[in-house]
Hints:
Helix content is 31%, strand content 25%. The C terminus is likely disordered.
Amino acid sequence: xxxxxxxKKLFSLLRYLPKSLRDHFFRSRLFxxxxxxxxxxxxxxxxxxxxQAFHILHEAYVKEGxxxxxxxxxxxxxxxxxxSTTTLVAKHQGQVIATISIIRDGPFGLPTDQxxxxxxxxEKGERLGEVSSLAIRPDxxxxxxxxxxxxxxxxxxxxxxxxxxxxxxxxxxxxxxxLYESVLCFEPLHRSALKHYAFxxxxxxxxxxxxLRRAADIWHAAYAGQPAHKSIYHLFFGxxxxxxxxQMCFPDRPFYTVSDPVMTPGLLDFFFNQCTDSFCRFNEHxxxxxxxxxxxxxxxxxxPPMWAIxxxxxxxxxxxxxxxxxxxxxxxxxxxxxxxLDASRSGLRVRADAELAxxxxxxxxxxxxxxxxxLVKARLCWRAGLIYGLExxxxxxxxxxxxxxxxxxxxxxxxxxxxxxxxA
Length: 424
């Protein structure tokens, strides 16, 4: 048995220690190095970056037994076709060396749904995101600390400030869960390991969660009194150094939106038709979902012939996910804080902080961008817990500007300026 396997076996045994001892062991060994100047972190937007990320992921997952080998030597999941999935990468000299994907809860649900009931979080109106598809290039595993610490910092701030998440969920191998629980303070969602997780080649798995909106308080308490180089709280919430500001590229958005769509017609065709035959095995629900998202005519040639099905459930107006804070006024009582979760020209979906009367005709004041608020009058149509669907009766001009911007985002994605590479 080589040294790597011995080390892996020892770490797997640590999960049987009492939690206090296990936490102390991992946190005492923690060392966070300074950010190297030769690394940068960004959203994977180009075919080259996505292709490198999917290749690194394939090689890592096959080696660990989490995926069967694919002829393309790429691991591409169904969720990567959605604008609610973002792939983040660490790069060295222009080449991808590590990757992680965040899958926001959406029309396909989450991979975790295969093994865990997340209803209790959804009923509270929490916006969930699954941390998935983590891998590092083999020749950089000796630098995994300096790469992964800062890739996770980038992911946490992207998820909080740009992706609209309230909670992380993860499904990881039992040998790795102690790192997430003891270092990152994830909480297990069940007592014993699951025997089969189809999303990872039926490997055993453990589910855990972290309430992202409370993460700063959780980490502050866990790492109180620790020096900066041993504190996850200081790493994530101790501010950004000049180097981090230069080397971490976050989106520049004029409105409070939560998606960065990158899948052009060429990229969808390359990854889901040429590299893989994924589109040919999508079910009818997935097909209708993608067709209702990518409405621009440029996408028509991407869909396989068997996708020529009636579009009975297509919405009159495409809905876009957003994260806009607002205040609802239904009468003389105190206003109710809310968050707009998605928007269209004819309706919106909101999460309210209190129960609303279904017969009310509320007026909202919604902040759609820095310095831009809009009044919206709407009619309540349905309710699920503290989530409400509303039909818009009147909206101010900034609402139209928000929708114009969102439509423009998809239109630009549909008409890329570069041609796709040939499939390998």
